[in-house]
Design brief:
290 residues; mainly alpha; MetI-like fold; 72% helix; elongated
Length: 290
């Protein structure tokens, strides 16, 4: 029996999805878990939440119940609502840092790997930034500015750029010795065209994988900054400051830390699973082995 073109496409799509799920289950699990967290953040106003910053002192420190699913904090605020809205902050920081940090690191790595004159100077600056732990560097940068979501993103981005730049530089140094790049240079191909056509496409796979790990690291760093009071302002609910406000009551109300901690752990786990799955799918050596 011959299938029409309109009937072939769904069959091919189902086969591709089934083959991907069989070969890379961690990627599928990570994507589904991450999508569920993103849906939770986007649909927070429609998931039975209330104003996450509304204070009700008479309802303070109430345990989880049918009315307050995750209980209330020391100010009487609904922990369930604050936890769901906190997902917006973590995902925004993670995605923003991954995009901006990867873009800056990619540009720096391409130029320094291909231009020897820039390599020594720029890489020494990157080495100096990498010598400082990301959390300490972010704290130092936040100390120079006021607490805001934008400043948190900038501070964490600057601490992540050197890692991407180092990765891309190493890939470019190996690619520039390849015959197809040498042939392009010998043929008089313009500098930026060589980078765009011959170098950049070969850096996409490792950079995408690194971007997922940067996203996970950024969410943890943001939670640490908020936990110690150097991150987002207290009026913006984030998983870090929710746990910070609940640490004084952990022995009598452990849910104040457990619920946002579980959400943070699941989100970071989802991003790491996506990164591992992408690495397995994009690495031709692993693909042949599987």
């Amino acid at each position: 029996m011959t299938l029409a073109p309109a009937e072939i496409a769904p069959v091919v799509q189902r086969h591709w999805l089934g083959e991907t799920a069989r070969r890379h289950p961690t990627l599928i699990i990570g994507v589904l878990l991450l999508l569920s967290m993103a849906a939770t953040a986007l649909l927070a106003p429609y998931l039975g939440t209330v104003d996450p910053v509304a204070v009700a002192p008479v309802k303070r420190l109430r345990p989880p119940s049918e009315l307050y699913w995750f209980g209330t904090d020391s100010y009487g605020r609904d922990v369930y609502s604050r936890t769901l809205y906190g997902a917006r902050v973590s995902l925004t920081v993670g995605l923003s840092v991954a995009i901006f940090g990867t873009a800056l690191g990619l540009a720096i790595g391409l130029l320094t790997g291909f231009v020897r004159l820039l390599d020594f100077v720029v890489m020494r600056v990157m080495d100096a930034l990498m010598s400082v732990p990301p959390v300490l560097l972010a704290i130092a940068l936040m100390a120079l500015t006021k607490a805001s979501l934008g400043n948190v993103i900038i501070a964490i981005t600057l601490s992540e750029v050197p890692r991407v730049a180092r990765l891309v530089r190493g890939v470019v140094l190996s690619l520039r010795e390849q015959p197809f790049v040498e042939a392009a240079v010998a043929a008089g191909t313009p500098f930026f065209r060589t980078l765009w056509r011959h170098i950049l496409p070969n850096t996409v796979a490792p950079v995408l994988v690194q971007a997922t790990y940067i996203c996970a690291s950024a969410m943890i760093t943001e939670a640490v900054l908020s936990f110690i009071g150097a991150g987002t302002p207290p009026q913006i609910p984030s998983w870090g400051n929710i746990m910070a406000e609940g640490r004084s009551y952990f022995q009598i109300r452990p849910y104040l830390i457990i619920f946002p901690g579980v959400f943070l752990s699941l989100t970071v786990l989802a991003v790491n699973l996506v990164g591992d799955g992408m690495r397995d799918a994009l690495d031709p050596r692993l693909a042949r082995r599987m």
